[in-house]
Amino acid sequence: MGIIESQLPERFRQEIREQIEIYSQRRTFEERKSIPDTTEIPIQDRTRWFRIRSIICVCVDMLGSTRFSASMNESATAGAYQLFTGTAVAVFDRFEASYIDVKGDGVFALFNGNQPYRALAAAVTFKTFSKEEFVPKVKVATGITVGCHIGIDKKLVLVRKLGLKRYADRSDRQNEVWAGKPVNMAAKLAAKTVDGELLVSDRFYEAMPDEYARYSCGCNTGQVGQAKTLLWSGVDLTVDGKFDFEPAYCLKSQWCSIHGNEYCEKLLTLDE
Ligand SMILES: [Zn+2]
Predict the structure, then answer these.
(1) How many domains is the chain built from?
(2) Ligand 1 mean position to 254 CA, how many Å?
(3) What is the pLDDT of residue 134?
(4) Å from CA of 221 to ligand 1 middle
(5) Domain that holds residue 216
(6) How far is the CA of 219 from the centre of ligand 1 (A)?
(7) What's the pLDDT at 95?
(8) pLDDT tens column, 157-184
């Protein structure tokens, strides 16, 4: 078994052999209480990993980006990508996410496990941007209906840098790899939604029990003084098979035009 000499030139076989040698070594996992700065994440020591018990991942993805054809309207297509991705990174940065990365048509942001309200406020802010600004602006410029979908999960993650160690000034051949459920599941949750929906795992939902995160300000009832309503609805994922939890919870609303500001600030005070 294995790749033989007559099958592949030696210099390429050698690279593969070196990786298999690393694979056969015993790995160590260092417990970290919170998301480390990227400069601290291991790259040199091949067997060293960090383990973080609880990380929240917020994934946002552009919906309908396949409808763009670059040849059709170059400038509008480029502009839409830039507005979506640029805003996602800027907003998550301003909400003090510990780690942000661009992935394909989307962006994911990581928050520490004890910051569920901050993660939620960031997600609702992006959702509000998408509905109020992004979708209408792109529609006007291109005639194309785009959208955004968002997922959030929370669980244990293993991290290290994988790829080539930095050489010359290049860093494009390595990246942090967050192995574990949250990044995967948040992306899969996002993929299950239609435009404007935020879908979260039950283990994230349970981490934010405060009524500011769960109930409406009352405006959506249309009548002053009417009782606050639960904003989230349960979604059964049992039949799906892709998820290691059930149910998920779906939020359709965005920041209220009267109370959003107050709710956003309030959520930011709730994390311990
Ligand atoms: Zn309101």
Answers:
(1) 1
(2) 10
(3) 97
(4) 10
(5) 26-267
(6) 4
(7) 98
(8) 999 999 887 666 777 888 999 999 999 9
What distance in angstroms lies between residue 215's CA and the mean position of ligand 1's atoms?
Answer: 11
According to DSSP, residue 36 is labeled P
List, in order, residues 6 or more apart from 146 with CB less than 8 Å away: 62, 63, 64, 65, 67, 80, 84, 134, 135, 138, 139
CA of 220 to the centre of ligand 1 (A): 7
Q: Are 187 and 139 in contact (CB under 8 A)?
A: no
pTM: 0.93
**222 Cα–ligand 1 center, Å:** 10
Q: Are 92 and 100 contacting, i.e. CB atoms less than 8 angstroms apart?
A: yes
Is residue 222 predicted with pLDDT exceeding 60? no
Q: pLDDT exceeding 70 applies to what percent of the chain?
A: 94
Render 72-135 in DSSP notation, one character per residue: T-HHHHHHHHHHHHHHHHHHHHHTT-SEEEEETTEEEEEEETT-HHHHHHHHHHHHHHIIIIIH
In a domain, 239, yes or no: yes
Report helix, strand or coil for 233: strand
Does residue 177 lie in a domain region? yes
